[in-house]
Design a protein that fits this description.
Layout: E1 44-45, E2 54-59, E3 62-71, E4 74-77, E5 93-97, E6 110-119, E7 136-140, E8 171-176, E9 192-197, H1 201-207, E10 216-219, E11 236-240, E12 248-256, E13 267-271, H2 276-283, H3 298-330, H4 343-349
Antiparallel strand pairs: 1-9, 2-3, 2-5, 3-4, 4-7, 5-6, 6-7, 8-9, 8-11, 10-13, 11-12, 12-13
One 2-acetamido-2-deoxy-beta-D-glucopyranose binds near residues 201, 205, 210 and 212.
GO biological process, one term: proteolysis
Organism: Strongylocentrotus purpuratus
Protein name: Peptidase S1 domain-containing protein
Length: about 350
C-alpha cells in the first residue's frame, strides 16, 4: 500500500547511457518466420510464430492487453493499458512473447518484467474518456532473446514521412487475444488475426462523431465484421512496407472503438507515425521530467492519505515520547539511526530495478 502512495516521484537514478537509432534493427525488423501462410480470410486463429512481435501484457499475472516488441529492451503499447496505481511499481507488468497461446509454451516462449514505464505526457491517465496520445513504452529489466529464424522478432517503426504509405485502403492486420464478441469478457487462449483496411480519415471522423484526432487512425471493413475488441488493446496493427517489402511496420496501436466489428464503426488506433519525436529521445535515454509521469492512484488516494497521516502522527507521538526517554542513551551510539523515515520507500518505488 505504501508504494501506491508515491505522489511525487523523483528521478533518482541516472540510467546507463545508451544511444539508439529510431529503427533498432533496420534490416531484420518486421520479418516473419519462413513457411507461415500469408493468407488471411476473416477473423481466425493465427499460426504458431506467425506474428513474432506480438506480446501479451500481464498485470499481476493476468492478461490485460496486447503489445509489440520494437527492440529487445522495449515494448510499445497503449497508455490506457497502464493502471496509474502501478506507475511506481513497473515490475507488476510482465510481457510474454513466443507463443500464440496465452497459457502453453514453445521452446522460444519468454517472459520479461518491466523496469520502467513511459506514458505519453499528453495522455490523461486519470480521465477514462480521454483517448488522444494513447501510447506507452515499457523498458524491460532483461532483454528478450530474438531468434535468427524470426520466431521472436521486432516489428519496424514507421517514420513520420511514411504516413502516406499507410493511407486509406491499405490492408493492415490486427492481432491479439481480445474477446471474439463485443461485451464478452473471456479471452480466447489462442491469438487471432484479422485483416482490416485502413479507413479514410475524414470518413472515419464522420463515423465516430468527430472524435478522431490527427494522432489516431481507423481501420475496419465498412460493412463490419473484422475488428479488434476488448483485450486486444495496446496490440499491433501492422502492414507491409511499400513495394515488394517483406517487412511489417507498426502502423497502429489498438486504442478504442464503439462496439466491435459493427458496420460503419471502424476500430480506432494510435497513429504511430505521429510519435517519432516522442519515442526517439526515450530510446536515446534523454528522459525529461515531463515525459515521466508521477504515480497517482485516485481510487486509493483519500484512504491512503488518511491512513498515512494517521500512522505518521502515531509514529511521531511515539517517537517523541521515546526520544525524550532515550536521548541520553542514544547520544553516544549510531549516527544514522534517525534517518529511516517513511520517505525512503516512496523515493525507491520509482527507481530503476534493472540489474538488481
Ligand atoms: C538469452 O540470452 C541470454 C544472454 O543475453 C542468455 O544468457 C540466455 O541463456 C538466453 N536464453 C535463451 C533461452 O536462449
Ligand atoms: C474531426 O471532426 C471534428 C469535428 O468536426 C474536428 O474538430 C476535428 O478536427 C476532426 N478531426 C480530424 C482529424 O480531422
Ligand atoms: C534532450 O531533450 C531536451 C528537451 O526535449 C532537448 O532540448 C535536448 O536537446 C535533448 N538532448 C539530446 C542530447 O538529444
Amino acid at each position: 500500500m505504501l508504494t501506491r502512495l508515491c505522489l511525487v516521484c523523483l528521478l533518482a537514478v541516472i540510467s546507463p547511457v545508451l544511444t539508439q537509432n529510431w529503427q533498432a534493427r533496420p534490416d531484420e525488423c518486421g520479418r516473419k518466420h519462413a513457411g507461415i501462410s500469408t493468407q488471411i480470410v476473416g477473423g481466425e486463429p493465427a499460426e504458431e510464430y506467425a506474428w513474432p512481435w506480438q506480446v501479451a501484457m500481464l498485470e499481476n499475472g493476468e492478461h490485460i492487453c496486447g503489445a509489440s516488441l520494437i527492440d529487445p529492451w522495449w515494448i510499445i503499447t497503449a497508455a490506457h493499458c497502464v493502471d496509474p496505481c502501478y506507475l511506481c511499481t513497473p515490475h507488476v507488468f510482465e510481457f510474454r512473447v513466443g507463443s500464440i497461446s496465452l497459457t502453453s509454451k514453445t521452446d522460444v516462449t519468454q517472459v520479461r518484467r518491466a523496469s520502467r514505464i513511459f506514458t505519453h505526457p499528453e495522455y490523461d491517465l486519470l480521465d477514462d474518456e480521454e483517448d488522444d496520445h494513447d501510447i506507452a513504452l515499457f523498458r524491460m529489466s532483461q532483454p528478450f532473446n530474438l531468434t535468427h529464424d524470426y520466431r521472436v522478432n521486432t516489428v519496424c517503426l514507421p517514420t513520420e514521412d511514411m504516413d502516406d504509405e499507410f493511407g486509406a485502403e491499405k490492408v493492415a492486420t490486427v492481432t491479439g487475444w481480445g474477446t471474439l464478441q463485443s461485451g464478452k469478457s473471456d479471452f480466447p487462449d489462442t491469438m487471432y488475426q484479422v485483416n482490416v483496411p485502413i479507413y479514410d480519415q475524414e470518413q472515419c471522423n464522420k463515423s465516430l462523431n468527430g472524435e478522431i484526432t490527427d494522432n489516431m487512425l481507423c481501420a475496419g471493413l465498412p460493412e463490419g465484421g473484422g475488428d479488434a475488441c476488448q483485450g486486444d488493446s495496446g496490440g499491433p496493427l501492422v502492414a507491409l512496407g511499400e513495394g515488394n517489402s517483406d517487412q511489417y511496420y507498426l502502423v497502429g496501436i489498438v486504442s478504442w472503438g464503439e462496439g466491435c466489428g459493427d458496420a460503419d464503426s471502424p476500430g480506432v488506433y494510435t497513429r504511430v507515425t505521429r510519435f517519432e519525436d516522442w519515442i526517439l529521445p526515450i530510446f536515446n535515454n534523454n528522459y525529461t521530467l515531463d515525459s515521466y509521469v508521477p504515480c497517482v492512484c485516485p481510487e486509493y488516494m483519500s484512504a491512503a492519505v488518511i491512513a498515512g497521516l494517521t500512522s505518521l502522527s502515531i509514529l511521531l507521538a511515539v517517537s517523541l515520547g521515546f526520544n525524550t526517554a532515550l536521548t541520553i542513551m542514544w547520544k553516544k551510539k549510531s549516527k544514522k539511526g534517525v534517518q529511516d523515515g517513511g520517505k525512503g520507500d516512496i523515493g525507491h518505488a520509482m527507481t530503476d530495478t534493472e540489474g538488481t
